[in-house]
Amino acid sequence: MVRARIRWLIGGALVLWLSSMFFTVNEEEHAVVLFFGRPVRVVSNAGLKVKFPLPINTVARVDKRLLVYDTVATEFLTRDKNNVIAQCYAVWQVTDPQQLLRRSGDRINAEQKLDEHLTSALGAAFSNYEFAALVNQDPAKVKLGELMQGVTQSVNDTVSKRQYGFNVVSVSLSRLSYPEATLDSVFKRMRTERKAIAEGYRARGTAEATRIRSEADRQKEQILAEARQKADQIRGQAEREAAAIFAAAYRGNPAFWRYWRKLQAMEKVIDKDTTIYMTPDIELFSPLVSPAPGQ
């Protein structure tokens, strides 16, 4: 009975030991087979795989997807001596799982190395740019994209040279601000700049309004001058036509013409309140005592 139990125990242990020869690989991971803790081969295809049983071979799993690492907010100094707080995130991916395990051991240690190089590259990059190249009202003057491309290239060069087994796809800023101690002075400077910009707009607006008014006045005077000239021409033409009509009328009936002219003259010197004392021989008032010619 005892021997039977021992045989069952040995058989069960043997089955368990032999079952450790099999392992599965998912689509989203690399499986690194270790020979007494030393990486010897990488299995990247999903499915059921075979290895030597424990403890000869063990399996370490490494994520093959794009990974995102967030840095902590860190203070940096720009070229024009402005302190800024920046926080970024890096998208990275394992390219050589065996090398990653040899150099870093696991993902946590790999991200610690990535953080060191990111911080160093960001510090060097910010020291080459003025703050106006990071935050500016003019989009053409903002160099953030250029800065982050430089950081990505710098970090990639470093991790490639040191053969960490991963590369950085991109580095992007998630936060950029001033330290709390300098925010008041920054806001004051921003208000001053905005006021100067507003004054510039007002000055240009005033100058443009003056120019428009001057142009309008010039056009008005030109139009009035042309209108006066045209009116004088029309008036002169009308006076010439009237004179011609009067001359024709005079030639047709000179006596009536003289009579009518006397009436016009009396209209100018006599009103309703005028009292006249005269003798019949006064030529101007002859229409008052003599009938019109032809009557």
- Give the CATH architecture of the domain at 67-177: 2-Layer Sandwich
Note the overall shape.
rod-shaped
Tally the helices: 7
Which runs of at least 5 residues are low in confidence (pLDDT < 50)? none
Structural class: alpha+beta
Describe the structure.
By secondary structure, the protein is an alpha+beta fold. Among the domains are: 15-62, no CATH class; 67-177, Tetrahydropterin Synthase, Chain A (2-Layer Sandwich), CATH 3.30.479.30; 255-295, no CATH class. It is 52% helix and 20% strand. The chain is built from seven helices and nine strands. It has helices at 2-19, 97-103, 107-126, 144-161, 183-252, 254-269, 286-289; strands at 22-25, 29-35, 38-43, 47-50, 57-63, 67-70, 74-77, 83-94, 166-177. The strands form three sheets. Strands 6, 7, 8 and 9 form a four-stranded antiparallel β-sheet that branches.
SSE blueprint:
Blueprint: H1 2-19, E1 22-25, E2 29-35, E3 38-43, E4 47-50, E5 57-63, E6 67-70, E7 74-77, E8 83-94, H2 97-103, H3 107-126, H4 144-161, E9 166-177, H5 183-252, H6 254-269, H7 286-289
Overview in brief:
The chain is α+β, with helices and mostly antiparallel strands.
Key traits:
about 300 residues, alpha+beta, Tetrahydropterin Synthase, Chain A, 4-stranded antiparallel β-sheet, 3-stranded antiparallel β-sheet, 7 helices, 9 strands, about 50% helix
